Amino acid sequence: MSETNQPARAGMSIPLRRVVITGTGAISPAGVGVDALWSHLMEGKSALSVLPEEDQERFNIGVIGCIPGYDPYELGFTKKEARRFSKFVQYAIVASDEAMAQSQINLEDEDLTRFACVFGSGIGGIEIFKNESITIHEKGPKRVSPLFIPTMISNMAAGDLAIRYGLRGECTNTVTACATGSHCLGEAYRLIRFGYADVALAGGTEEGIADVALAGFGNLGALTREKDPNHASRPFDANRSGFVAGEGAGALVIESLDHALARGANIIAEITGFGSTGDAYHITAPEPHGEGITRAMKLALEEGGFTPADLGHLNAHGTSTPANDKTEAAALQALFGEEAPQVPVTSIKGCIGHTLGAAGALEAIITALSVSRSVVPPTIGFETPDPESPVNVATSPLTNYPQKVALSNSLGFGGHNASVAFSPYSA
After folding, report:
1. Across residues 171-176, what is the average pLDDT?
2. Angle at 359 between CA 357 and CA 365, to 5 degrees
3. Burial class (CB in 10 A: 0-12, 13-18, 19+), 212
4. What are the structural domains, with CATH classification, of the chain?
5. Average pLDDT over residues 40-65
6. pTM beyond 0.85
């Protein structure tokens, strides 16, 4: 497929560019690095943690998905950086440093005006928001930190990353709640596909276990009260009872195929489609028939020239909430009809919980590795099939399983749906 560096303009017809992944990075409840997350998934190990008893009583929940032993200083942050960067920004930097290093891109050789940064957070700096709210209440307005706003706002992950690497292409932050990571990756993909950028750093990040977040989600009835980490997050299981709140970040370096080939990059996988739709239904509940996510999956497949029959597996949003999983099962049924139960479905939230704005990015990385390595990771925690959610949940790794295309789905509060298609790279 031919490519061009000229961006699309109204009334112009230009060749669309292929987009490939050349770097990935992660920090999650499984630990620092993509390898740690992949190992937990393939070994069927839960990375969830039991809350201390006093917190269990406070929040009426038993399990969270926290990053084990997180210490910003051990990860190379200075005291000034640890103070000025909210945790969600710190997580974004850790994941992005890994992705940039893996891509082996030499920034000195790049036209940085054509290197985009599209990195989001569903909530942003919720911990500092809580702390400064207490400060103004207890000590008055003059004691609120002058850095409160630039430390808290969710676009600062993209802003600080662009500053860190000198990226001067489009710098944006798409916020669609729990679909944020997927929408940021999809937007970056479109920037490259339509010629507005040659390279992009994309992803999502979240500090989703701050106590005010746990209280809010808990009072909403969204969190499970299970106390066993091995049974707390169990996507599509008949006994699922809510999600486990998690934290972390996922980052991907993506670029046009011509750009990657010209610099001799190692290509991990190809992004072959993106679909984005809205439910126009409810502020928290997904539209029960899954019509919006069905359209998003169709759009993603069609953009790559695929049909539903080509789908190797679905990396589902799979939150372990009764409504979400039932909706996704309905959407897959609508996409396939009678063939839906044959398509393997997995959700990494059984391993790390729901990392909110980071979820789509972390799941994109796993889906890309799955098609690249011809495997499908299992869904940890799943035991009992739900007759109202009839999907083929992978309970053990599927290996030697080549795929033409796989989809990664994300759904966000407000009715935001995203589906990203990934294929193994071939010249």
Report:
1. 97
2. 130
3. middle
4. 19-262 (3.40.47.10), 270-423 (3.40.47.10)
5. 95
6. yes
